[in-house]
Amino acid sequence: MHYWLHQLQQKRWEFSTARGLGTRDSWNLPTMPQIHSGLVASNTGTCVTVYLRETVCVTVCCDVIMCSQNVPKLSLRGTRNSMSQLRQGWGGEGRRSVFYTAEEWEMVDPPGKDSQEPTQIQELPKKPPPDSHRYSTGSVFTFDFGKSASRPRRPFLRDMMKASRSAESSQTDCNGSKASEMQHRLQSLQEELAQLREELASQKELVRLLQQTLKSAQCERPAVAVAGGPGGPQDQAALLQEKGTQIKGLCSHMEKLALEKESLQQELKSLKNKVGEMNEQLGMLMETIQAKDEVIIRLSQQGCDTAGGACGSPDCGSPTSTSKELQELDNLKDGLQAYKTQNKFLNKEILELTVLRRNAEGREKALEAKYTALEAKLCQVESKYLILLQEVKSPMCSSSEENPAQEVISRLLEDALQVESSDQQEHPIFKPHPVSEYDVYGFKTVPDDDEEEMLVARVRALNLKKLSLGEQEMSVSVKWDNYLAGMMNREMTRSPELKALVRSGVPHEHRSKVWRCCVGFHVKKLREVLPQNYFESQLRAALEKSNPASKQIELDLLRTLPNNKHYASPTAEGIQKLRNVLLAYSWRNPDIGYCQGLNRLAAIALLYLDQEDAFWCLVTIVEVFMPRDYYTKTLLGSQVDQRVFKDLLSEKLPRLHAHFEAYKVDFSLITFNWFLVVFVDSVVSDILFKIWDAFLYEGPKIIFRFALALFKYKEDEFLKLQDSMAIFKYLRYFTRTILDARKLMNMAFVDMNPFPLRQIQNRRTFHLEKVRLELTELEAIRQTFLRERETTTDGRTLISDDEEDN
């Protein structure tokens, strides 16, 4: 295609040059005013209208080129076949276009016979035989561009200009009539020009329609091939080959995105370097200005001193001294004016550098936003790539022969499931966004045992990363930066603004500070009456004296968070800190001592807080947030909250509650652990820490909100299940399938409203009395059973087997 366009442009240039050597004024049009086009129009392929006839063909050709760039794998032969009929008529004439059929190439508008130097036009090769177009794609519509016999031939603009010039030479004696006739001819020429422009627009529209037709025909061919379905091994092999082609296309797309990312990073680095250089230049200019100002001040002082000394001298009134003083004054004025001019120039340079620096900062922010969007898009492409690999992994045909495409897919799966290594870190182009073995919180992301689970885990990790790189997450991070910048020299206090920010989630880099402040809100009065080294004293006492809870604590240390690298081994850095926090709290609160569940609460707190702050976080949860007897041996408070939650579920989600009641599903077996450890090991880590953000600020009401939101998120899936075993099985893992934290938080804080804390407290009081009565009855039944068993054991006579035989 580019070869023929090059040939066409060369012939047109030769033709225009040859015609320019002749009587150019006899056929050249009047110069048209230049049409100014905007940024959008600059890419539409418009041409300067010098020769109107040539403009039609060149513009149509440019539009065809632009359309063909949007059509994948478009053949030039197919384009010639589709556009071959355009050559037959434009304005009712048998003129030729840039497209050709079996006829030879000809110029659009050959020169007249009266030209002084005729131009020889070399004929181009003819169209290939029809067999070469067997596989070209034609149009699905029928267009007829034939000649119109009833339409008269329109005169050329050049002929009309010639006629006007001949009329000038023949009617030199009639100046008045010639002026009116020329005005009439000019008006007719303008009308002709308007008509030709309209026809040019219609021709462009026809070309665009033809290109769309070609594109639709290209798209229908693979659809027709797929619609046939797998009718045999050959069709299955073709389908597999097509999927392999899709995989290659995705791989190439990933490589392109990686290269684009690298180029953006390099451009960002260069822009940062330029900004640094500009700042250095700005500093140098400021120093120069300061030095100039000092020189001006010094010279001014010297001038004042000189003027004062001259007035006190005896030669003060002489004409010679006066002339010298005037000359020095003029010199000082000239120097002052020069310094002012230089100062203005430097100030102008500083302003320009400031504008450049601001523009560079804007470009840098735009590049960072683009980089983030590309990173999120690449994560999405990688997840689709892994899903495609999982789909095509199963054999497509039942033949026992090994399929080479299957080996390629297996190899790609092995590469996709490899853990990130040091080589990949040094060369990020080979794997631009690898899923590491652990996330930012230290939790293991990919299991080691099952290959299918590894693939699903990687897809989940990529989806989480894509969600974390969204525009809303970036907006939340910017809001937090602005808020903390405003609170830099002030203490953080409870406010509606802080509450709204905490509900939107705290960024990873600010979570430690925010959690420390939230814990301080709740235990501030308690810590004021205690010594500053209270935690160290409690820990020292627990280590020096006998502690009944220490044995159970040691047993549960390694079972706390085995999937987190900070608590995975006895030598991990979090084990000793966790031991100290649990021992210190067991010594502070001997009524509870240690309960299974406290270890997980302390472990999550230690991920962002030091030992002392984690200790006070545990005090906040157990003694401030939760009711009494929540972590005792009877777990009385936990049982009460389950009944409160059941009432709230029937109120907020009545359909789901009725569905559970119809199939007699006791969901409290699952939700009991949610309330006891605040969703630890129940949801993905990103959602877990967003729940803890709001929990540490607002209190236990957040647990009820998110528990209801989790059920609302999957309400439709629960209602589709019609078996109690299937419902209970889905209850055990459905929370791990929820990845969109923003959607879940919107349900918790918007869809669950109104949600007053007083309502929860009243329901707790009501159910607490009922649970206590039930526990009292159970204890009475247990005591009665024990007494009966003791009585039966004392009254029974033991008889040996030998005595029984006798």
From TrEMBL:
An annotated GO cellular component: cytosol
Coiled-coil ranges from the UniProt annotation: 179-220, 247-288, 329-377
Any single Pfam family the record assigns to this protein: RabGAP-TBC
InterPro entries xref list: Rab-GAP-TBC_dom, Rab-GAP_TBC_sf, Rab_GAP_TBC_domain
Name recorded for this polypeptide: TBC1 domain family member 2B
Domain of life, source organism: Eukaryota
The keyword Transcription regulation belongs to this UniProt entry's keyword annotation: no
Rab-GAP TBC domain ranges (all copies): 505-699
Disordered: region residues: 108-139
Compositionally biased spans, kind Basic and acidic residues: 124-134
GO MF annotation list: GTPase activator activity; small GTPase binding
The entry's keywords: Coiled coil, GTPase activation
